[in-house]
Design a protein that fits this description.
The protein is mainly alpha-helical and 187 residues long. Helix content is 83%, strand content 0%.
Protein backbone atom coordinates (compact mmCIF):
# COMPACT_ATOMS: atom_id res chain seq x y z
CA UNK A 1 0.00 0.00 0.00
CA UNK A 2 2.91 2.37 0.73
CA UNK A 3 4.06 1.90 -2.85
CA UNK A 4 0.72 3.11 -4.20
CA UNK A 5 0.73 6.11 -1.86
CA UNK A 6 4.29 6.91 -2.86
CA UNK A 7 3.46 6.68 -6.56
CA UNK A 8 0.30 8.75 -6.11
CA UNK A 9 2.22 11.46 -4.27
CA UNK A 10 4.89 11.37 -6.95
CA UNK A 11 2.26 11.84 -9.66
CA UNK A 12 0.64 14.78 -7.86
CA UNK A 13 3.97 16.46 -7.09
CA UNK A 14 5.15 15.97 -10.68
CA UNK A 15 1.95 17.52 -11.99
CA UNK A 16 2.31 20.43 -9.57
CA UNK A 17 5.97 20.97 -10.58
CA UNK A 18 5.16 20.93 -14.28
CA UNK A 19 2.39 23.48 -13.78
CA UNK A 20 4.71 25.79 -11.81
CA UNK A 21 7.36 25.44 -14.52
CA UNK A 22 4.77 26.26 -17.20
CA UNK A 23 3.67 29.33 -15.21
CA UNK A 24 7.30 30.49 -15.00
CA UNK A 25 7.63 30.05 -18.75
CA UNK A 26 4.44 32.07 -19.30
CA UNK A 27 5.83 34.85 -17.10
CA UNK A 28 9.08 34.83 -19.08
CA UNK A 29 7.03 34.98 -22.29
CA UNK A 30 5.11 37.99 -20.99
CA UNK A 31 8.42 39.67 -20.12
CA UNK A 32 9.79 38.97 -23.61
CA UNK A 33 6.65 40.47 -25.15
CA UNK A 34 7.15 43.63 -23.07
CA UNK A 35 10.79 43.75 -24.15
CA UNK A 36 9.68 43.50 -27.78
CA UNK A 37 7.35 46.47 -27.37
CA UNK A 38 9.97 48.51 -25.50
CA UNK A 39 12.63 47.76 -28.13
CA UNK A 40 10.36 49.01 -30.86
CA UNK A 41 9.35 52.14 -28.96
CA UNK A 42 12.95 52.91 -28.02
CA UNK A 43 14.08 52.55 -31.63
CA UNK A 44 11.30 54.84 -32.83
CA UNK A 45 12.21 57.41 -30.18
CA UNK A 46 15.91 57.32 -31.09
CA UNK A 47 15.00 57.58 -34.79
CA UNK A 48 12.93 60.71 -34.10
CA UNK A 49 15.83 62.22 -32.14
CA UNK A 50 18.20 61.50 -35.03
CA UNK A 51 15.86 63.13 -37.51
CA UNK A 52 15.44 66.16 -35.27
CA UNK A 53 19.20 66.48 -34.78
CA UNK A 54 19.73 66.20 -38.54
CA UNK A 55 17.17 68.90 -39.27
CA UNK A 56 18.67 71.19 -36.61
CA UNK A 57 22.16 70.66 -38.03
CA UNK A 58 20.90 71.46 -41.54
CA UNK A 59 19.26 74.66 -40.27
CA UNK A 60 22.47 75.65 -38.51
CA UNK A 61 24.50 75.03 -41.70
CA UNK A 62 22.03 77.02 -43.80
CA UNK A 63 22.19 79.92 -41.33
CA UNK A 64 26.00 79.81 -41.38
CA UNK A 65 25.90 79.76 -45.17
CA UNK A 66 23.51 82.69 -45.30
CA UNK A 67 25.79 84.69 -43.00
CA UNK A 68 28.85 83.82 -45.10
CA UNK A 69 27.08 84.66 -48.37
CA UNK A 70 25.77 87.90 -46.88
CA UNK A 71 29.28 88.85 -45.76
CA UNK A 72 30.64 88.02 -49.22
CA UNK A 73 27.98 90.13 -50.96
CA UNK A 74 28.64 93.02 -48.57
CA UNK A 75 32.38 92.62 -49.14
CA UNK A 76 32.03 92.61 -52.91
CA UNK A 77 29.57 95.50 -52.89
CA UNK A 78 31.72 97.48 -50.44
CA UNK A 79 34.71 97.19 -52.69
CA UNK A 80 32.82 98.94 -55.43
CA UNK A 81 32.80 95.86 -57.65
CA UNK A 82 29.59 95.07 -59.45
CA UNK A 83 27.89 91.94 -58.09
CA UNK A 84 27.75 90.06 -61.37
CA UNK A 85 29.91 87.73 -63.42
CA UNK A 86 32.69 85.94 -61.54
CA UNK A 87 31.90 87.21 -58.03
CA UNK A 88 28.27 86.25 -58.49
CA UNK A 89 29.22 82.79 -59.83
CA UNK A 90 31.47 82.21 -56.80
CA UNK A 91 28.65 83.22 -54.44
CA UNK A 92 26.13 81.03 -56.31
CA UNK A 93 28.53 78.06 -56.14
CA UNK A 94 28.94 78.59 -52.39
CA UNK A 95 25.17 78.72 -51.91
CA UNK A 96 24.71 75.54 -53.97
CA UNK A 97 27.51 73.73 -52.12
CA UNK A 98 26.16 74.76 -48.71
CA UNK A 99 22.60 73.73 -49.64
CA UNK A 100 23.89 70.38 -50.89
CA UNK A 101 25.72 69.90 -47.59
CA UNK A 102 22.55 70.70 -45.63
CA UNK A 103 20.55 68.25 -47.76
CA UNK A 104 23.23 65.58 -47.21
CA UNK A 105 22.98 66.11 -43.44
CA UNK A 106 19.21 65.52 -43.58
CA UNK A 107 19.62 62.47 -45.84
CA UNK A 108 22.21 60.97 -43.48
CA UNK A 109 19.92 61.61 -40.51
CA UNK A 110 17.08 59.85 -42.34
CA UNK A 111 19.36 56.88 -43.08
CA UNK A 112 20.44 56.65 -39.43
CA UNK A 113 16.81 56.90 -38.30
CA UNK A 114 15.72 54.20 -40.76
CA UNK A 115 18.59 51.97 -39.67
CA UNK A 116 17.73 52.45 -35.99
CA UNK A 117 14.08 51.60 -36.61
CA UNK A 118 15.09 48.50 -38.56
CA UNK A 119 17.34 47.34 -35.71
CA UNK A 120 14.52 48.01 -33.25
CA UNK A 121 12.08 46.00 -35.34
CA UNK A 122 14.58 43.15 -35.58
CA UNK A 123 15.07 43.14 -31.80
CA UNK A 124 11.31 43.26 -31.31
CA UNK A 125 10.83 40.31 -33.67
CA UNK A 126 13.47 38.36 -31.76
CA UNK A 127 11.72 39.00 -28.45
CA UNK A 128 8.35 38.15 -30.00
CA UNK A 129 9.71 34.86 -31.31
CA UNK A 130 11.18 34.14 -27.88
CA UNK A 131 7.81 34.84 -26.26
CA UNK A 132 6.02 32.51 -28.68
CA UNK A 133 8.63 29.80 -28.09
CA UNK A 134 8.22 30.12 -24.32
CA UNK A 135 4.43 29.94 -24.56
CA UNK A 136 4.68 26.83 -26.74
CA UNK A 137 7.14 25.36 -24.26
CA UNK A 138 4.71 26.10 -21.41
CA UNK A 139 1.94 24.24 -23.26
CA UNK A 140 4.22 21.29 -23.88
CA UNK A 141 5.37 21.27 -20.25
CA UNK A 142 1.77 21.19 -19.04
CA UNK A 143 0.91 18.33 -21.39
CA UNK A 144 4.02 16.32 -20.51
CA UNK A 145 3.36 16.88 -16.79
CA UNK A 146 -0.18 15.59 -17.16
CA UNK A 147 0.93 12.57 -19.18
CA UNK A 148 3.68 11.81 -16.63
CA UNK A 149 1.11 12.01 -13.81
CA UNK A 150 -1.19 9.63 -15.69
CA UNK A 151 1.68 7.23 -16.37
CA UNK A 152 2.80 7.35 -12.75
CA UNK A 153 -0.78 6.75 -11.58
CA UNK A 154 -1.08 3.79 -13.95
CA UNK A 155 2.22 2.40 -12.66
CA UNK A 156 0.95 2.79 -9.10
CA UNK A 157 -2.27 0.95 -9.97
CA UNK A 158 -0.32 -1.78 -11.73
CA UNK A 159 2.07 -2.11 -8.81
CA UNK A 160 -0.81 -2.32 -6.36
CA UNK A 161 -2.54 -4.92 -8.52
CA UNK A 162 0.66 -6.98 -8.67
CA UNK A 163 1.27 -6.70 -4.92
CA UNK A 164 -2.27 -7.73 -3.99
CA UNK A 165 -2.45 -10.58 -6.45
CA UNK A 166 -5.19 -8.92 -8.48
CA UNK A 167 -7.65 -8.16 -5.69
CA UNK A 168 -9.68 -4.98 -6.03
CA UNK A 169 -9.39 -2.54 -3.18
CA UNK A 170 -12.43 -2.61 -0.96
CA UNK A 171 -14.14 0.72 -0.73
CA UNK A 172 -15.76 1.71 2.54
CA UNK A 173 -19.36 0.63 2.98
CA UNK A 174 -22.17 2.56 4.55
CA UNK A 175 -21.18 5.80 2.90
CA UNK A 176 -24.28 6.00 0.79
CA UNK A 177 -22.27 5.35 -2.35
CA UNK A 178 -22.46 1.58 -2.18
CA UNK A 179 -19.84 -1.11 -2.08
CA UNK A 180 -17.92 -1.45 -5.31
CA UNK A 181 -15.63 -4.21 -4.03
CA UNK A 182 -15.55 -7.83 -5.16
CA UNK A 183 -19.13 -8.35 -4.00
CA UNK A 184 -20.66 -6.19 -6.72
CA UNK A 185 -22.70 -3.02 -6.50
CA UNK A 186 -24.70 -2.93 -3.32
CA UNK A 187 -25.99 0.05 -1.64
Amino acid sequence: MEFAVYMGAKAVLGLYASRRQAEAMEAAADFAAVQAQLSLEQAQFVAKLQLKAGREEAIRRRQDSARAVGAAVVGVAGSGTEVSGSPLAVIADAIHRDESDAAAVITNAKLRAFSEEARGRARALGFTAQAEQLREGADITRTVGLLDAIATGAAAAGGYYKLTGGASPALPTGTGYGDYGAGGMEG
